[in-house]
Amino acid sequence: MVNALQTFSKKIDPELVEPAKIVTIGRKLVPVTAPQGFGVTSVDWGQISGMSDGHVGYGFTSGNEDVIDIAMTNVKVPVYWKDYKVNRRTYEGWLQNNSTNIDTASAVDALYRTIVKEDVGIIQGIVNKAGTYDIKGLYQSATSTVTDTYDFGTYGQATKALAAAKKELVDAGIPAYSIPLNMVLPSTQYGELEASESANGVEETPKIEKMLNGGAIFSVSETVLPESDGMVLPAPRVAKPYFDYFLTQNYATEHGFDSNHPDTSDLTGRVYTAGILRVKQPKAICQLQVI
Length: 291
Fold this sequence. Notes:
Blueprint: H1 2-23, E1 42-48, E2 70-76, E3 79-86, H2 88-96, H3 105-123, E4 125-127, E5 133-136, H4 138-141, E6 144-149, H5 157-171, E7 181-186, H6 187-195, H7 205-211, E8 217-220, E9 230-234, H8 236-239, E10 243-256, E11 267-279, E12 286-290
Parallel strand pairs: 6-12, 7-8
Antiparallel strand pairs: 1-2, 3-11, 4-5, 7-9, 9-12, 10-11
Helix pairs in contact: 1-3
């Protein structure tokens, strides 16, 4: 029976892959490691302190070395999951005929709900019962900030906000004028930008896309990023020195029975994944605080 349940899960797992790729936003913002194994429950990483300027001369001189100070962090790897049920007769039909179509709606819905939790974890962080962050996400980790007000409902303001963010990043030592960047916006500001055009009909979005140097604009639910908050950060293909997502378990399912009714109870299903955001250089993330 155990083997049958494992086979059933493997039948459902591929149905989750494409929806996950489409729906997830958090993982599109960060480099993601290969799965390290569900048994990995904590991870260490180092945050490098700032270094002094480089040197120029006509020969090498001594005494210019920096002692690299690395602040080590050890954090438990969180698990994201959602439970659901599978009709027992559907499962029995699959056992009798492997070509029976499995209704994966419950699993896919559970996947979406799991992804929302993971997106919050990557973008904002994980809050404990006391209301403080056990693990800070991208936005909460950011040390570069734009605090001036830029109303995205007014043409040209989004362009000015992005220009300000790029300057903050460059001043912090991040080459924002020459690397691809991503802009993350709550749904309200994303919609305002999408509709923004000048009196002459010039759309603002293409200008923003050009300024992102090959990066992209992402919209997230306001349950993930509240209205008026946004951020600008390096795109994943250049972001590994700054942050990444340490993945221990990719999206998967498991199924089991109620032991009191092993022959007739519905299957209990679970979609789960595990991973943790590692921010190595918080200055590489710029908050847009009033948009």
